[in-house]
Inverse folding.
């Protein structure tokens, strides 16, 4: 099966399918609430649609990346344990294929939700370019996926996997807090969506490259 | 020995004195005068004159008017102009709009250091228009005018030549007892809306001024020039603004109607339906058709994005609408440009015009023009400084004549009704017509105009000019006015 097929299969699994549905539903609701109705002429929908989209994609990327990164190695599972096909142990070729499939699925989420951003941007006519708006959302999805892989691995090494349901939102909240307290735009997807943020883009690009490198590793696990 | 010491002391003292004198001579001196003869009229354009001596080359004059209040905080209007500088005198003259302010401070800054500075206290402001007298017996006029009038005594050389500088002047009275003022200064005052009174038999030196008593009943632009041989009390009665157009009210009324139409939005219901249908389609395609479904979803998303961009994107980031109010009197008209800027993205406007915003907001004026910041989906209405243009609409005999090069449309005489259009060079004899609904472009102004005022439009393809000719038909014996 090629990578697109793998990504489609990954998207068809319940977790990502529900994530896609929830993402689209959230954007529909935000668009409906923020689009001017009646005689109103002021359209500022993009100022909510773009940050919400960016934040949700970042959250999804972080969550799915963490879920992949925290997988146990085969050696940790015991000799008698037979892993499920959709849950390969960490470091195995199948795991790397799943990383690649999930990464492409994240890209697909960014592409499929792009019309919401483009429509709101076109009507709002903000000073920020549409190219940045589209790029930052894509980078947020893939970058936070890369960060999630690292977070998941770190939590496994530190034996903190049980805390992951709290860690994922905590990391995003920490990113928001960091930017607010330092007055910079480094890690907060909400602020980054509204204005070009070179440091945020650089951080996300590095994390994306890390995810791509991880996805392209196909080495066999050493016995 | 003692004599030698005394000589030494004398030399030291003399050298010190010379050094002090040299320093004193090089000390920069700056005088600033705001308003005609230093009399500021708030809510009007006022002349500003700065005379600087021996300020450094490349100095700048910075005047800050704070229009803020306790509740709003500081709302500065900053005027920044270059001062030539160097040895000798440097003069800066400008006409500025002075809105009600809480403080005015000024400074001449040269080479990163303040050369001179000063302030005008907020409580000195007064919006009463000035009655300017050029006379040696100003006391007689001050006594003849009502107590609430502001009679100010200036010299002929203090009268500016800029039309806008007379925005806050109600009358200029010349009785021939002083040096004659320049003809152009009195013409500017009259065109700006002031009543210029040539009082008493004028001496030979003032004979030139009688050229202003023209053939249109003394009307010149928005004001008029009259001659009177009466007493100061008679002059005081003459300057009452009867039959003239209330300029400030007319400008406010003209600016009250939007000059631009914001871009139309896609209907909310359509947007929601398309968004929901697309979302369902994307989920179904991905779930049911696997890889091809995912590719199809992505393609549909791209196509929908292109369509949304085409349908929802306004054609330009800013919309500009203009309207000009021109008050006709004789051969001249006093025009005030109204310009509304509506910006979709937040923007900084840099406009090479002499204007001021109609509302209270921070802005900056320098030699390049006016600069202000505007939030997204907001507009600002700017009113230009009054200026004089040629009037196309004149009365010859009993006929209105269009002497301009563009058609005058929707001609209306207040009290007689609509009169149709007037092509260039054509004449029109006003008749009593059946009243219909007046054109939107000047409907709001009609209540402010006296009967007999002729109203017309021109150039409405790009931005209407509303011509108002007050009193053109007054006294012509038209029945029904």
């Amino acid at each position: 099966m090629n990578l697109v097929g793998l990504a489609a299969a990954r998207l068809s699994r319940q977790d990502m399918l529900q994530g896609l549905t929830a993402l689209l539903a959230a954007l529909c609701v935000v668009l409906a609430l923020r689009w001017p109705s009646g005689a109103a002429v002021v359209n500022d929908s993009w100022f909510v649609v773009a940050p919400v989209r960016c934040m949700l994609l970042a959250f999804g990327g972080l969550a799915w990346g963490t879920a992949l990164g925290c997988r146990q190695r085969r050696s940790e599972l015991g000799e008698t344990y037979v892993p499920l096909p959709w849950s390969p142990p960490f470091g195995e070729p199948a795991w790397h294929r799943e990383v690649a499939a999930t990464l492409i699925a994240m890209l697909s989420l960014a592409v499929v939700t792009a019309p919401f951003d483009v429509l709101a941007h076109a009507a709002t006519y903000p000073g920020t370019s549409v190219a940045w708006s589209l790029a930052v959302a894509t980078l947020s999805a893939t970058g936070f996926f890369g960060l999630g892989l690292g977070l998941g691995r770190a939590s496994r090494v530190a034996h903190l996997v049980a805390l992951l349901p709290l860690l994922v939102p905590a990391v995003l909240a920490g990113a928001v807090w960091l930017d607010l307290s330092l007055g910079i735009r480094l890690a907060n997807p909400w602020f980054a969506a509204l204005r070009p943020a070179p440091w945020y883009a650089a951080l996300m690009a590095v994390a994306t490259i890390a995810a791509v490198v991880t996805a392209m590793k196909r080495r066999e696990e050493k016995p | 020995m003692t004599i030698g010491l005394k000589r030494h002391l004398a030399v030291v003292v003399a050298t010190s004195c010379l050094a002090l004198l040299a320093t004193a001579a090089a000390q920069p001196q700056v005088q600033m005068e705001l308003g005609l003869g230093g009399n500021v009229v708030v809510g009007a354009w006022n002349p500003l004159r700065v005379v600087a001596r021996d300020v450094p080359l490349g100095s700048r004059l910075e005047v800050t008017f704070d229009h803020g209040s306790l509740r709003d905080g500081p709302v500065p209007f900053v005027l920044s102009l270059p001062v030539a500088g160097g040895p000798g005198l440097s003069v800066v003259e400008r006409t500025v709009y002075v809105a009600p302010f809480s403080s005015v401070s000024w400074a001449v800054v040269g080479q990163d250091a303040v050369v001179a500075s000063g302030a005008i206290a907020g409580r000195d402001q007064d919006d009463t228009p000035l009655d300017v007298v050029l006379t040696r017996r100003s006391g007689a006029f001050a006594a003849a005018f009502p107590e609430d009038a502001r009679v100010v005594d200036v010299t002929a050389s203090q009268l500016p030549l800029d039309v806008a500088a007379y925005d806050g002047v109600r009358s200029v009275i010349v009785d021939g007892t002083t040096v004659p003022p320049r003809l152009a200064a009195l013409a500017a005052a009259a065109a700006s809306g002031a009543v210029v009174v040539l009082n008493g038999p004028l001496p030979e030196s003032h004979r030139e001024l009688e050229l202003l008593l023209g053939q249109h009943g003394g009307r010149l632009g928005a004001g008029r020039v009259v001659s009177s041989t009466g007493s100061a009390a008679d002059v005081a009665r003459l300057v009452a603004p009867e039959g003239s157009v209330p300029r400030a009210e007319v400008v406010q009324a003209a600016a009250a109607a939007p000059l631009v139409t914001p871009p139309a939005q896609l209907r909310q219901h359509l947007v929601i339906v398309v968004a929901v249908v697309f979302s369902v389609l994307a989920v179904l395609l991905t779930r049911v058709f696997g890889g091809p479904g995912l590719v199809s979803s992505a393609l549909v998303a791209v196509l929908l994005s292109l369509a949304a961009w085409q349908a929802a994107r306004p054609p330009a980031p800013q919309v500009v609408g203009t309207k000009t109010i021109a008050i006709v009197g004789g051969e001249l008209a006093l025009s005030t440009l109204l310009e509304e800027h509506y910006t979709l993205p937040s923007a900084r406007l840099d406009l090479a015009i002499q204007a001021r915003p109609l509302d209270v907001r921070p802005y900056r004026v320098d030699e390049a023009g006016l600069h202000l910041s505007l939030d997204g989906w907001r507009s600002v209405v700017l009113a230009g400084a009054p200026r004089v243009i040629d009037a196309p609409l004149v009365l010859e005999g009993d006929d209105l004549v269009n002497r301009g090069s563009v058609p005058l449309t929707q001609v209306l005489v207040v009290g007689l009704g609509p009169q149709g259009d007037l092509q260039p060079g054509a004449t029109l004899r006003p008749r009593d017509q059946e009243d219909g609904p007046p054109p939107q472009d000047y409907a709001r102004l009609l209540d402010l105009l006296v009967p007999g005022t002729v109203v017309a439009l021109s150039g409405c393809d790009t931005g209407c000019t509303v011509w108002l000719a007050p009193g053109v038909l007054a006294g012509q014996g038209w029945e029904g006015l």
Notes: The CA atoms of residues 86 and 184 of chain A lie 40 Å apart. Chain A is about 75% helix and 0% strand. Confidence is low (pLDDT under 50) at residues 219-223 of chain A. Chain A touches chain B through 42 residues (CB under 8 Å).
